[in-house]
Amino acid sequence: MTVPIAIIGAGIAGLSAAQALQAAGQTVHIFDKGRGSGGRMASKPSDAGALDLGAQYFTARDRHFVEQVRQWFDQKTVEAWKPQLYNYRDGVLTPSPDEQIRWVGVPRMSAITRGMLGDLDVSFGCRITEVFRGQEYWHLQDAEGCSHGPFSRVVIAVPAPQATPLLAAAPKLAGIAAGVQMEPTWAVALGFAEPLNTQMQGCFVQNSPLDWLAQNRSKPGRDKRLDTWVLHATSHWSRQHIDLPKDQVIDQLWGEFAELIGCVVPAPTFSVAHRWLYARPAGNHEWGSLADPDQGVYACGDWCLSGRVEGAWLSGLHAAKRLLSHFD
Ligand code: FAD
Ligand code: NAI
Fold first, then answer.
1. Structural domains of the chain sorted by starting position, each given as residue range(s) with its CATH number in brackets
2. Where does the record place the Amine oxidase domain (predicted)?
3. Would the annotation count 98 as a binding residue?
4. Which one in 12, 80, 230, 234 has a CA-CA gap of 20 to 30 Å to 108?
5. In what order do the strands lie in the sheet with 297-299?
6. Does ligand 1 lie within 6 Å of residue 157's CB atom?
7. Angstrom distances, CA of residue 54 to CA of 50, 137, 189, 214, 277
8. Could you report the per-residue pLDDT of 116-139, keeping only the tens digit for each?
């Protein structure tokens, strides 16, 4: 019997690792606490259609990732998004066009990880609380008290603060993960019955509680019924307002948006807020992935490379390659 490899996390890092391991002939089983795949690349179903409240778009600079994006493009799970970009600084809004290609999942961001699932074995709604070693193999304990296993190796593909307790059996890796601080982001989506009178479809914001705005429905394949906008607060503002009730977060960020956008902004007919506790690593690391080959424990995710979609995908691949290189 082949003893499978456990992967904790069905975000893009975990799925990238899973695909690479499966392609090399390994059997994997993935666990995720969420109801679906994608993690911070998931899209939220709502009365205003699916909304990208986490990752907004991604760029591809590494040649391996460029090749992967080309395959997704051929499979019709991604398209280029070409927004009218603006920049807002110190009260001044200026057009800020550029040549950068920005990719989005179609018809929603989560289409990418949904497509990556293929025939992989995944248990959703399963929060892993402990990773422990039996005599020979690894076992996982979940929040319901069920145990899963045996597994020959374990790949932990969750944000650093959530990885730390799961890495208890590999204290060196746990120490590294514990040293990674991750910053929060408050995200708000607003929907307007009448389109706002602006050319803007995306905006980088400086010196404001807001960090980024995007017209969600300007992305390819999105629901067009309402004029939907996604607002992201800065890490600083999000940290300072971490426990603010959602309705107040919506009110405050809507106010900032109305001031910034330079046109009349009526009360939204739809609004939703989401708090990402571990949105992005506070600093950049170039580890690729973390490995304790003697124990057979690996960790990956955006916090091991760049805090971006591309970095997360590359980190999963890095972990898989390291694991395969250590196979007897
Ligand atoms: P995650 O996506 O966090 O996946 C981890 C998975 O592990 C999750 O599905 C989670 O449910 C699961 N999990 C966690 N703990 C457990 C457990 N104990 N047991 C089981 N499952 C568990 N990047 C860009 O490139 N461009 C952008 O525009 C951009 N914008 C962003 C905006 C926001 C608001 C946020 C939050 C992120 C943004 N990012 C962006 C970053 C990008 O989303 C991440 O870098 C990337 O999605 C991280 O992928 P990951 O697989 O490493 O982690
Ligand atoms: P990118 O190249 O579009 O943007 C990188 C940065 O360059 C931007 O943050 C912005 O400051 C600047 N920039 C780029 N184009 C600009 C333009 N036309 N006008 C003005 N400024 C411009 O994309 P990349 O490198 O893939 O970065 C991903 C994006 O995801 C970044 O904006 C980053 O802030 C965001 N992100 C947000 C997170 C969150 O929690 N809110 C987490 C991780 C990433």
1. 5-35+124-179+288-325 (3.50.50.60), 63-110+182-281 (3.90.660.10)
2. 109-324
3. yes
4. 234
5. 121-123, 28-31, 5-8, 153-156, 297-299, 290-292
6. yes
7. 12, 36, 11, 12, 11
8. 999 999 999 999 999 999 999 999
pLDDT, position 328? 64
Q: Which ligand is nearest to the CA of 55?
A: 1
Please tell me if the CB atom of residue 235 comes closer than 6 angstroms to any atom of ligand 2: no
Q: Is 232 in the pocket of ligand 2 (CB under 6 A)?
A: yes
Mean pLDDT of the chain: 96
State residue 266's pLDDT score.
93
What confidence tens digit (pLDDT) does each residue in 23-51 have?
999 999 999 999 999 999 999 999 899 99
Ligand 1 atom at shortest distance from the alpha carbon of 315: 52
In the 8-state DSSP scheme, what is residue 216? G
Write out the two tokens for 142: 């979940």
Residues in the chain: 328
Residue nearest to atom 41 of ligand 2 (CA): 185
- Kindly report the backbone phi and psi dihedral angles of residue 311, in degrees, each rounded to the nearest multiple of 5, phi listed first: -65, -40
